[in-house]
Structures are given as C-alpha cells and as structure tokens.
Automatic annotation (TrEMBL):
Organism: Trichonephila clavipes
GO molecular-function term, one example from the UniProt record: nucleic acid binding
The protein's name: Putative DD41D transposase
Length: 205
C-alpha cells in the first residue's frame, strides 16, 4: 500500500484505535517514593500511602466520522484491570465489532499500534476476519511503524484533549472520572474529528 491511498480522500476510511491509562489522584496523594526527610530524632511515624494511584484503562477507536467508545477494561466483578490479549480480544468481540456494525462504515481500514496484546496471532486472526487486508498493524497485511505515536490521532489529539477537560471539576471517585470521560468524548463533533484525521495526512510527509 502506498501513500496514494491517503491522498485521494481515502484517509476518511481509516479507523485508528488506542488505549490510555487515566489516573485518579485522590485525597491529594502525591507519589513520594523518592522523597526523603531527615531528622535527628527517630519519630517512629508511619504513613501508609498507595504505591500507585488508582487508574482506569480506557479504549477508543476514531475515524473522520465518529468515535467508538470509550470502553473501560474491567473484570467480571467490575474492578478496573489492565489489558492482556484475552481481554483485548473479548473487547473486540463483545464491544467493538457490535458497535462497528451500528455505524454506516463500509470498507473501513483499521489501524492499531504494536502492543503485544494487539499483535498476538489470535488477535491478528480475529481482526483479519473482520477487516481482511484492510488491517494496518504489526504482523498484519499492512505494516505500521513501531513507536509512531505522532501518527496516531488518539495519541496526538484525543487523550490529551480528554485529559485537559475531565479533571476540571476535580473528580473524587473513579466513577465520577469515568462519567466525565463519557461526557467529554460524547461532546466531540465529527467536524473536529475530520480536521484531526485530515491533519494526520500531513504527518505522513
């Protein structure tokens, strides 16, 4: 595949996906792992703090016409979890493909980064069943350059835009933060996405 595909307006048929970790900082918590306080007296004071802040792992896909998602990775008990191959494939099967079928998108191309859970053989086979040769991915029919965040609209636009707004009202719980993410993404208009994807073509030069 050459850049000619993107120069004739076909770039509007590219759907790109990504996930991000949205951290929830509660009770003014600051990571003080490398902070040292010296005192001549042994104060024998212990302060328990979490090693890491709570976080949500959020997935979205976008193209010039809209956004699918957000999708929050959770286990069967509703607790937030990180992504592995099984969870990623379950999301594709149970969420992404049904959502995709609700949109009027024909001959859509699908692009993903090179994360291990994205490029496992079982994942690539699942995506090829849906997109055929219109899969842009490491180990896919069309290769995608590794570590190319500057070429992924979710990385150079969406996650920064979302994070700039979801903390405005200082959410106190993960549920509140999740609600904010839903609201901010729902408010993004196709006109904005069209400009974001059009900007993507200039990054290929």
């Amino acid at each position: 595949m050459t850049l000619t595909l993107w120069r004739d307006g076909s770039w509007r048929r590219i759907m790109t996906q990504s996930r991000d970790h949205v951290h929830h900082l509660q009770n003014g918590y600051v990571n003080k792992q490398n902070c040292r306080i010296w005192n001549e007296a042994n104060l024998q004071v212990y302060v328990e703090t979490p090693l890491h802040p709570e976080k949500l792992t959020v997935w979205c896909a976008l193209w010039a016409g809209g956004i699918i998602g957000p999708y929050f990775f959770k286990n069967d008990e509703g607790h937030n979890v990180t992504v592995n191959g099984d969870r990623y494939r379950a999301m594709i099967t149970n969420f992404f493909i049904p959502e995709l079928n609700n949109h009027d998108v024909q001959e859509l191309w699908f692009q993903q980064d090179g994360a291990t859970c994205h490029t496992a053989r079982a994942t690539i086979d699942l995506l090829k069943d849906t997109f055929g040769d219109r899969l842009i991915s490491r180990f896919g029919p069309v290769n995608w350059p590794p570590r190319s965040w500057d070429l992924t609209p979710l990385d150079y636009f969406l996650w920064g835009y979302v994070k700039s707004l979801v903390y405005a009202d200082k959410p106190q719980t993960l549920d509140h933060l999740e609600d904010n993410i839903h609201r901010v993404i729902a408010d993004i208009r196709p006109q904005m996405l069209g400009k974001v994807i059009e900007n993507w073509t200039s990054r290929l030069d």
